[in-house]
């Protein structure tokens, strides 16, 4: 018996809570079902079920393995259907990652629409500013603000953003002049930081990078806190354009030093080669592209 068939047996036993019932459902003998589970347990070197004379139940390892098995079997079914040209509705678990604030502002509304339209899909959202490995974390789709560095990734651009320097009108009304990046040394600075690198802001002048070393008055590892401090008139900060788009549009923050803005960064929707043809992945990527392409701030 191959691994995939054994996984199918395992999933059925877990679903029905009985070796005998699983055997009947799969048109197999009870001993064959027992052998399939024993084979998996040997290969995994762990027990998948607690067995008593009256009932069986999953071990902790079995519960974790069942989640992976369901995803693998669903992916195989979707992949085979796609190759055969059969149109299936997306189903199963979709794992999505995106930067924290971008995920909250842009990706979560897309997930909500996707879940409404496809009731057989569950979504696990991982909002994280650190780049996660798609293979190690079983991520299906990643939205990243950078170009992919791994040739094994399938990516397409859905917009772009860039770093912008902002402050409140109240702060600027009483602050020293601000016409060049060097003038920042005379200002109160608010620095979004993970505290792992020296505080530096990079600007572009005549095609060259100008690095300004900072002495921030306020450093914080949460962008929302830095934005709130800037809105309150405490000082100047520098963030991704999408993070302060609403505040700039409302007039709470003003874009300064625009002529020195850094290069634009692409927003990429990324999946592993081989997974991009799964129906749940194809459909979700389509939703992301369609939604973000309509956003005039990301695609001016």
TrEMBL record:
<keyword id="KW-0804">Transcription</keyword>
<dbReference type="InterPro" id="IPR036388">
    <property type="entry name" value="WH-like_DNA-bd_sf"/>
</dbReference>
<dbReference type="GO" id="GO:0043565">
    <property type="term" value="F:sequence-specific DNA binding"/>
</dbReference>
<protein>
    <submittedName>
        <fullName>LysR family transcriptional regulator</fullName>
    </submittedName>
</protein>
<dbReference type="Pfam" id="PF03466">
    <property type="entry name" value="LysR_substrate"/>
</dbReference>
<dbReference type="GO" id="GO:0006351">
    <property type="term" value="P:DNA-templated transcription"/>
</dbReference>
<keyword id="KW-0238">DNA-binding</keyword>
<dbReference type="Pfam" id="PF00126">
    <property type="entry name" value="HTH_1"/>
</dbReference>
<dbReference type="InterPro" id="IPR005119">
    <property type="entry name" value="LysR_subst-bd"/>
</dbReference>
<dbReference type="InterPro" id="IPR036390">
    <property type="entry name" value="WH_DNA-bd_sf"/>
</dbReference>
<dbReference type="InterPro" id="IPR058163">
    <property type="entry name" value="LysR-type_TF_proteobact-type"/>
</dbReference>
<keyword id="KW-0805">Transcription regulation</keyword>
<dbReference type="GO" id="GO:0003700">
    <property type="term" value="F:DNA-binding transcription factor activity"/>
</dbReference>
<comment type="similarity">
    <text>Belongs to the LysR transcriptional regulatory family.</text>
</comment>
<dbReference type="InterPro" id="IPR000847">
    <property type="entry name" value="LysR_HTH_N"/>
</dbReference>
<feature type="domain" description="HTH lysR-type">
    <location>
        <begin position="1"/>
        <end position="59"/>
    </location>
</feature>
């Amino acid at each position: 018996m191959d691994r995939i068939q054994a996984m199918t047996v395992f999933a059925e036993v877990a679903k029905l809570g009985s070796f005998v019932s699983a055997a009947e459902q799969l048109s197999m003998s009870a001993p064959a079902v027992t052998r399939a589970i024993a084979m998996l347990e040997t290969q995994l070197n762990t027990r998948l079920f607690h067995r008593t004379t009256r009932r069986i139940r999953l071990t902790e390892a079995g519960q974790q393995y069942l989640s992976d098995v369901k995803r693998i079997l669903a992916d195989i079914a979707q992949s085979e259907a796609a190759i055969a040209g059969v149109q299936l509705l997306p189903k199963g678990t979709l794992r999505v990652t995106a930067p924290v604030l971008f995920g909250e502002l842009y990706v979560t509304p897309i997930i909500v629409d996707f879940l409404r339209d496809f009731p057989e899909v569950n979504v696990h959202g991982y909002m994280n500013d650190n780049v996660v490995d798609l293979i190690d974390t079983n991520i299906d789709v990643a939205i990243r603000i950078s170009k992919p560095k791994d040739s094994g990734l399938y990516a397409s651009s859905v917009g772009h953003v860039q770093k912008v320097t902002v402050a409140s009108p109240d702060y600027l009304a009483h602050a020293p002049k601000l016409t060049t990046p060097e003038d920042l040394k005379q200002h109160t600075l608010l620095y979004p930081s993970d505290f792992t690198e020296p505080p530096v802001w990079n600007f572009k002048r005549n095609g060259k990078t100008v690095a300004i070393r900072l002495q921030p008055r306020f450093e914080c590892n949460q962008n929302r806190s830095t934005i709130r401090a800037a809105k309150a008139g405490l000082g100047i900060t520098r963030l991704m354009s999408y993070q302060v788009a609403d505040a700039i549009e409302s007039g709470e923050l003003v874009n300064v030093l625009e002529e020195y803005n850094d290069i634009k960064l692409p927003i990429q929707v990324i999946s592993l080669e081989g997974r991009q043809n799964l129906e749940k992945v194809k459909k979700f990527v389509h939703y992301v592209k369609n939604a973000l392409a309509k956003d005039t701030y990301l695609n001016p």
